[in-house]
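To illustrate the input format used throughout this study, we show a single complete record. The first block contains the structure-token representation of the backbone; no residue identities are included at this stage. The design step must infer an amino acid for every position from geometry alone.
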């Protein structure tokens, strides 16, 4: 399972979806979907823009893989 930490990062930095959308050039629907955890796919360019804007040092700060039940480790 992929755990999305974007809303946590935005919350810590007190950033609104509209501010992130404007600052990254991404569509507000794209940022909103990631913020609310409803996005099904993420483009690499989107991750690049978010990582740069949110000033994270690794994509792992944005998204994390957590093995779920029945997954092989």
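Output of the design step:
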């Amino acid at each position: 399972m992929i755990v999305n930490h974007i809303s946590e990062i935005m919350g810590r930095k007190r950033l609104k979806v509209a501010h992130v959308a404007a600052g990254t050039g991404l569509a507000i629907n794209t940022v909103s979907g990631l913020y609310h955890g409803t996005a099904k796919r993420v483009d690499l360019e989107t991750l690049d823009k978010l990582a740069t804007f949110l000033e994270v040092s690794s994509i792992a700060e944005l998204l994390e893989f957590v093995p779920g039940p029945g997954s092989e480790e």
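Structural context for interpreting the output: The chain has a mean pLDDT of 94. The radius of gyration is 13 Å.
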